[in-house]
Design goal:
The complex is a heterodimer of chains A (130) and B (162). Helices cover 54% and strands 8% of the residues of chain A. Chain A is mostly helical and 130 residues long. Chain B is built from seven helices and one strand. Chain B has helices spanning 5-34, 44-49, 57-80, 82-88, 92-109, 112-119, 128-161, and one strand spanning 123-124. The chains are: A mainly alpha (130), B mainly alpha (162).
Chain lengths: 130, 162
């Protein structure tokens, strides 16, 4: 049995907690980020790529100019792209009316989806070689 | 800047210290959430879990963000130095481990807004399970990142000296 008790009395409430707009945004952001990150990573859909040897930033997955550009770093692009998609989706979902939202709402997605995403990441790295 | 080894080592050490502090907080909080203390505290294990879990959340968020930010800054140097050594010595599994670390830590960063939301007082009893699972996922991510980073650092060092 889980318990998030604290030392202060009254810090836990047994009343049904309403879901605030921030809560809707936060959960949507976390869930969509994990899904978007997987897609962006596996398809190479990052908004930009960084070449640390030359300090060059290129759009999307474009190669750097020059023959000795060094290694490409796509990770920054993965994070930024996924964050933008997740943020936009979170804001859109926040605008939805409360009633239909509560019918679809399951807070457990916030830990289940990232867990599944991490397993998918491991699969893509080890098996597929992404 | 990326090949200034003195600056890179300093930032790497700070990265490790911030990660260490993050792990401490998250581990205490995770233990406290799953196995709370309801009786007299006797053992070391009792003391480890007899913390006010709610009070750790902001510190955990700060340490996660700081660790992540320093990691973002030192990553290019790693790509040009340590990564090059690992690739040259065909350390595929170590490289894959680091790739796993970078991806899961990004996923963990995106969980922080929800983590803050679920740990904001008053703590609703009906959200206990989500709170516990979210904390556990973050703890797993942070531990995985710490262990992989430590191994990668050691393997790269051993490879250079070989």
């Amino acid at each position: 049995m889980t318990n998030a008790q604290t030392a202060r009395p009254g810090a836990i409430t047994h009343e049904r907690a309403p879901v605030t707009r921030y809560g809707v945004f936060a959960v949507t952001f976390g869930v969509i980020f994990a899904v978007a990150y997987l897609l962006v990573m596996s398809k190479g859909w990052q908004l930009f790529t960084y070449y640390p040897l030359t300090g060059e930033w290129t759009p999307l997955s474009q190669s750097a100019t020059g023959p000795s550009a060094g290694p490409a770093m796509k990770w920054y692009g993965y994070v930024a792209t996924s964050a933008l998609v997740a943020c936009a989706t979170g804001l859109l979902v926040c605008l939805l009316p409360q009633k239909p939202l509560t019918r679809l709402w399951w807070a457990g997605l916030i830990w289940l989806v990232p867990m599944l995403a991490m397993m998918a990441v491991a699969y893509l790295i080890v098996v597929v070689g992404d | 800047m990326w090949l200034n080894s003195g600056l890179w080592v300093t930032l790497l050490i700070l990265h490790g210290i911030a990660a260490f502090l993050l792990l401490g907080g998250l581990t205490h909080q995770t233990l406290s959430v799953w196995i709370p203390v309801h009786r007299h505290i006797d053992s070391f294990f009792d003391r480890a879990r007899a913390v006010s879990a709610k009070n750790y959340s902001v510190a955990i968020i700060v340490f996660y963000v700081v660790t992540f930010a320093i990691g973002m800054v030192i990553y290019p140097d790693f790509k040009l130095t340590g990564n090059k050594v690992l690739t040259a010595h065909h350390m595929t599994k170590t490289l894959q481990g680091f790739e796993f670390k970078e991806h899961v830590l990004a996923i963990g960063l995106a969980l922080l807004p929800a983590y803050y939301y679920y740990w904001r007082p008053p703590l609703a009893h009906e959200r206990d399970t989500v709170r516990a699972m979210l904390t556990s996922v973050l703890a797993f991510i942070s531990w995985a990142g710490f262990i992989v980073g430590h191994i990668v650092n050691n393997v790269a060092g051993l490879a250079i000296s070989a």
